[in-house]
Amino acid sequence: MIVPVILSGGQGKRLWPLSLPDRPKQFLALTGPESLLQQTLRRLADPQRFVAPIIIGGEDHRFLIAEQLRELDIAPRRIVLEPVGRSTGPAVAIAALLALEADPEALILVAPADHAIPDAEAFAEAVDQGAVAAAQGSLILFGLKPSFPATGYGYIAPGDPVTPAVRKVARFVEKPQEAAARDLIAQGCLWNSGIFLLPAAAVIAELEALAPDVLAAARAALAAAEADRDFLRLDAGAFEAAPSISIDHAVMEKTGHAAVVEADFAWSDIGSWSALWEALEKDADGNAVRGPTTLQATTGSLVFTDGPMVATLGVSDLIVVATPERILVAHKDSDQELKSLAERADGS
């Protein structure tokens, strides 16, 4: 049985103005009637594969997490509350330590709360393929065959076989330029999904060897943590001492045990409005819409309203997002710059 670990600490600033600090994108219904967090919880709820999940999120979002779990009637193993964000390295260390308390041979499936994976069966098949190698000590990543030369994703070069479905990681490439991305795709490289299947004991051993300061801070934060019903509040002083580092940089890019499943499921990290446009169904003119809209002579656009009627005329390749308080109009090619615009617009 696998312990799902759902990371729900992101702020989703590139989906402003809908995603805001008090309700970031993982809590929003962007690709269907349920939020991205709830879709992730459902995907990891199969009792034949998974035990109750561990959710790791921010103190400010504790009631949102609890409410969305209640709506699905899912009881978590723990809701771990981070006093500050420290990226995925310390979070994975905390989760692995908690999993080992119950099972010295635990496997943890680390999944961000804000990814869209519409085909749950294909996802489960990939997990099953990775579990064989993970049980033998490999630290598993899930790689996706690229559909375009993305410059906002990391890439994985597969190496020698570990099992028929799993290959060693030959190298990582972080967010290449478009020409380099095309070359990587031609070489058979995969998108790094940011989803991991890890033997808890093995990842603790690798943290001890490669990032001992991360592991020490996680142990100290757990030792002084305070339990409150389903919530586990990490000790603030100890956790703040942890370096802010991803599990990729802390372990996966340095270990000799990294391996990758070439997964066959549709995936998006919903990291931008253009990524959401890619993930949604479109009309004959390539438009994706949500909410009360009227489009005329409009092509290739995302029109998303959480309030007022939005009408467009004679435009192409736009992102138009309306909430009761804010309106965004941007070209799809510019949405990677949205984080800085949001900070200016909200004065943060």
Provide structural commentary.
The longest helix is centred in the middle third of the chain and has 16 residues. The protein has eleven helices and 17 strands. Helices cover 31% and strands 28% of the residues. A hairpin with a 4-residue loop joins strand 16 and strand 17. Helix 1 crosses helix 2 and helix 6 crosses helix 7. It folds into two domains: 262 residues, Spore Coat Polysaccharide Biosynthesis Protein SpsA, Chain A (Alpha-Beta Complex), CATH 3.90.550.10; 73 residues, no CATH class. The strands form three sheets. It has a five-stranded mixed barrel. A four-stranded mixed β-sheet has the order 12-14-16-17, with helices on one face. The chain is an alpha/beta fold and 348 residues long.
